[in-house]
Amino acid sequence: MKTVDILIVGAGITGITAASILAREKNKTVLIVEKRHHIGGNCYDCFNEDGILIHLYGPHIFHTQHKDVWDYLSQFTDWLDYVHHVKAFVDGKYISFPININTFEQLFEKSFTKDDVLAYLEREKIDLPEIKNAEDMVISRMGNTIYNKFFKNYTRKQWGVDAKDLAPEITERIPIRFDRDDRFFTDPYQGMPEKGYTELFKAMLDHEKIQVITGKDYRDIKDQVNFDKIIYTGPVDAFFDYKYGYLPYRGINFSFKTYDQENRLPMAVVNCPNDHSYTRITEFKHMTFQKHPKTTLCYEYPSDVQAGRNNPVPSYPILNNSSIKKYKKYLNLSHKKKDTIFIGRLGKFQYLNMDICVKHVMDRLIFD
Ligand code: FAD
Ligand code: UDP
After folding, report:
1. What's the pLDDT score for residue 364?
2. What are 199-230's pLDDT values in tens digits?
3. How confident is the model at residue 314 (pLDDT cuts 50, 70, 90)?
4. Within the chain, which residue ranges are assigned CATH 3.40.50.720?
5. Whose CA is nearest to atom 10 of ligand 2?
6. Prior bond to 98 cis, omega within 30?
7. ipTM greater than 0.95, yes or no?
8. Ligand 1 center to residue 345 CA distance, Å?
9. Which of 11, 64, 73, 340 could form a disulfide with 39 if both were Cys (CB 3.0 to 4.6 A apart)?
10. What CATH number does the domain located at 2-83+188-249+306-366 have?
């Protein structure tokens, strides 16, 4: 029988940050149990058979406005100075995205000033008494032309349902800018871990008070471990044996292709709203600055996650009225489990960026 202070379920960025803080700052012994055969959860990266660093679960760019988060992680890694840019492939052209003055110029092939953009939006945007869904969120800010060219089909592919059937927060993430700033993220701290995410995580876990088991479901070992508390970063509905039914997730099938040429795309990510059945393509070398005669691209094909199973891995919580209502029932149950903290994107059924996962752990930790 093993004895530890805390059992952590899941070795994604949430579980790993919790382990690191508990061991280093709270002097606790920790066992992390991860059912995949690797650490890092969805942020895992590795070298493929051609020796190119890829992100196995889609492109991950670190960005944050929280200095404490940046400083915490910076103890374990240096950063590559990468600033993320995305283009949308629309009307046969690579167009600046998110929407900014350059987008209008490239789309309509004439010059625009800030005032021209404001006048365009004033004419096109739809006045709505209430923003009820992800379509309303776009058309009320940008109008139907922009919605149809950049958002409508991408959202349908990504989520498998119409934007009308999704919560407004889904498209609220995408800003509109009245200048020419076409960085995808405007956070003051952004970059890529110098040696990759997996190396960063290994450094965080490198502590005598932390033990890690991979390739095991925590249910298979929890009776062989004495512990005081659990930090649970798996799906909250699974913890309660799907008592109120499955929470819906969208998955992505990631298809990787290596080309015998140094570079293939003009930038790291190209969104394809209207062509192809994939949503976007990533060329990792633009983010990792790796020098290599070949290059690997990743194509993302969204698909349904089979309820309660991990094939493909659940990527995005599908937020709509019924799923939010169901989640609230699980939340009530989780409040009654005094010896367990539910945290992370699956534990909280939220779309969380990496930095917010770290921030939640830093702010909640934990069991003083
Ligand atoms: P996870 O990474 O899912 O980790 C939870 C772990 O728990 C998993 O490894 C799972 O196997 C394990 N687990 C579950 N159940 C059990 C069990 N019963 N027993 C043992 N282990 C279990 N964020 C950004 O900040 N920037 C980006 O550019 C970005 N890009 C993204 C791109 C895509 C395609 C997606 C889907 C997300 C992206 N994100 C990005 C979000 C980022 O992936 C999440 O913030 C992060 O992965 C969440 O970490 P987590 O530890 O909470 O969850
Ligand atoms: N979106 C879109 N077209 C795009 C990019 C995004 O319609 O070219 C919508 C889509 O609904 C998507 C949401 O905006 O799910 C959030 O986009 P983001 O790029 O933040 O998604 P993520 O990187 O999390 O997949």
Report:
1. 83
2. 999 999 999 999 999 999 999 999 999 999 99
3. confident
4. 2-83+188-249+306-366
5. 155
6. yes
7. yes
8. 7
9. 11
10. 3.40.50.720
